[in-house]
Design goal:
Blueprint (H helix, E strand, L loop, with lengths): L2 H22 L6 H9 L6 H12 L4 H22 L9 E2 L2 E2 L1 H4 L2 H18 L9 H15 L4 H13 L6 H26 L5 H24 L2 H4 L5 H4 L5 H5 L1 H18 L8 H12 L3
Antiparallel strand pairs: 1-2
Helix pairs in contact: 1-3, 1-4, 2-6, 3-4, 3-9, 4-6, 4-9, 7-9, 8-9, 9-10, 10-14, 10-15, 14-15
Bound molecules: geranylgeranyl diphosphate.
Length: about 290
């Protein structure tokens, strides 16, 4: 992986973490506020990276795009807190440490997730984004659509339903489920930079559709091949539960080949932007070579 990519990923991670800390600085030290800060910390910050690098592509500086990057990371953090709850995936570990409901309790986890979601939309209304009200409204609306009942929440519901389905999902069904569950936020992130810069987000949509699917296939591969100490999750959990995954449907080699094909598609979608899009090309390669 190129050094520029790694540097940019950590630079943006620092910037977005600072922005989130600043946004929550006035929240005091009650358990919900503390749990929000805890849940919003860490992670690869891939969604933030996509926002900020796509923003650069469209001429938007980091000090403006970081607010949109923080918004999507807040939504992502909320989704992880709720996904880990006993009524959903019932996980004890997230990002290598105790999940919010384990460290505090379930009520605090539900509320911290809710409040992170509210925070995300508040961040998108900020003047610091440096765009007029119509653009901010477009970002708010598109994030609501990506996160809500036709996007991430739908994907999560489809995933829960799949657990009790009599027959495992077919490839087109699992592809649709994942496009909703993880693809919608990844897609929003890549398009947000173009929206902020007043450009056409269509090509970034093509890029991120391929990237999002490659990300999920890589996640299924990590579920089989990953190191629990690094991934911070129970390895083989999906496979043990008898759930259809890209690996169960395509085989390990088939899943790897499909992921590589999707990376090539993502790279091809960036051709109109030439060299300027190199870090986004690297991101596509990163999602299938990551170890957590
Ligand atoms: C609870 C409404 C609701 C939605 C939850 C995204 C999601 C929907 C659940 C996450 C479950 C999961 C582990 C899915 C696998 C892919 C995924 C989104 C992994 C976590 O994202 P990363 O790898 O995490 O970007 P970091 O920690 O790096 O931010």
């Amino acid at each position: 992986m190129s050094e520029v990519f790694q540097e940019r990923l950590s630079e943006h991670a620092v910037e977005v973490s600072r922005c989130l800390e600043l946004a929550m600085a006035g929240f005091g030290d009650d358990p919900v506020a503390e749990a929000m800060r805890y849940a919003a910390g860490g992670g690869k910050r891939l969604r933030a990276f996509l926002v900020m690098e796509s923003a650069r592509l469209f001429g938007v500086p980091d000090d403006r795009s970081v607010w949109a990057a923080a918004a999507v990371e807040a939504i992502h953090a909320y989704s992880l807190v709720h996904d880990d709850l006993p009524c959903m995936d019932d996980d004890d570990l997230r990002r290598g440490r105790a999940t919010v409901h384990v460290k505090w309790d379930e009520a605090t986890a539900v509320l911290a997730g809710d409040a992170l979601q509210s925070l995300a939309f508040e961040l998108l209304t900020r003047d610091e984004l440096g765009v007029d009200t119509a653009v901010r409204l477009r970002l708010v609306r598109s994030l609501a659509q990506a996160a809500g009942a036709a996007g991430m929440v739908l994907g999560q519901a489809q995933d829960i339903a799949a657990e009790s389905a009599r027959t495992p999902l077919a490839l087109d069904q699992i592809t649709e489920l994942q496009a909703n569950k993880t693809g919608a936020l990844i897609g929003w992130s890549a398009r947000a930079g173009a929206v902020l810069g007043g450009g056409d987000p269509a090509q970034m949509g093509v890029y991120s559709a391929a990237l999002g699917l490659a990300f999920q296939i890589a996640d299924d591969i990590l579920d089989i091949e990953g190191d629990a100490a690094r991934t911070g999750k129970r390895v083989g959990k999906d496979a043990e539960a008898g759930k259809a995954t890209f690996v169960s449907l395509l085989g390990l080699d088939g899943a790897k080949a499909r992921a590589r094909q999707l990376v090539a598609e993502a790279e091809a979608a960036l051709e109109p932007y030439g060299e300027k899009a190199q870090t986004l090309r690297d991101a596509a390669r990163f999602v299938i070579s990551r170890d957590k």
